[in-house]
Amino acid sequence: MPWRPFSRCLIVAAALAVAGAPGALRAENYATCTARIAKDPRAALAAAEAWTNGGPAAAHCRALALVALGRYAEAATALEALAKTLSDADTFIRVAVRAQAGLAWVNAGKTEPAIADFDAALALDPENADVLIDRAQAHATAGDYWDAIADLDKAVALAPGDGLAHALRASAYRHVNVPELALEEAERAVALAPEDPIAVLARANARADLGDRKGARADWRTVVDLAPGSTAATSARQALAATGG
Asked: Which domains does the chain have, with CATH numbers?
């Protein structure tokens, strides 16, 4: 099951930056620190660690810098520690930080603690479709596809227009050998998000499972055209090579 980018759940509300005044200065420092991550994550990490009395804002910037550096387990641990300090923060912030910890664990290859963090986030906000999607992908990574489908069923009910949720449910249906439902879900995904390579890849794979080689190959080529540097395109190229180039 293809993962959506970590960046989709990367940003926490600006309220985190001002948690525990002085708000204006903290927000400015937080914005400066997080903006630095994309350009120089090592410098951002150093700045966050040197930020005296930065509180949750400094801790969050540090964790995001660790993510950018690929130090995912450290980032997950830092985000979990941060979450424990946010008992008085808005629910949105607490959920977002827990979900980010889960995503960091997934990137570290650790699905069990990831699911625990997603569980904690959903305990705070049971109808958060984004977190349900993230937990579904963690279940799928662990090979628990029916659990993934259960989460995606809830996510689709909450956000029926989310093409990614349908694409991921299509992928899950493929893994439990229900190709007809996989194709139905993939068709919905493409209708909702026709330029999303994950959706088009899901339809390509579902078409291939049902013997529609021509349709599958057309979709795989579209995936490569849409996002040539993506993991979806890598999968598409491999499928094209396996079926004759």
From this structure: 1-148 (1.25.40.10), 160-245 (1.25.40.10)
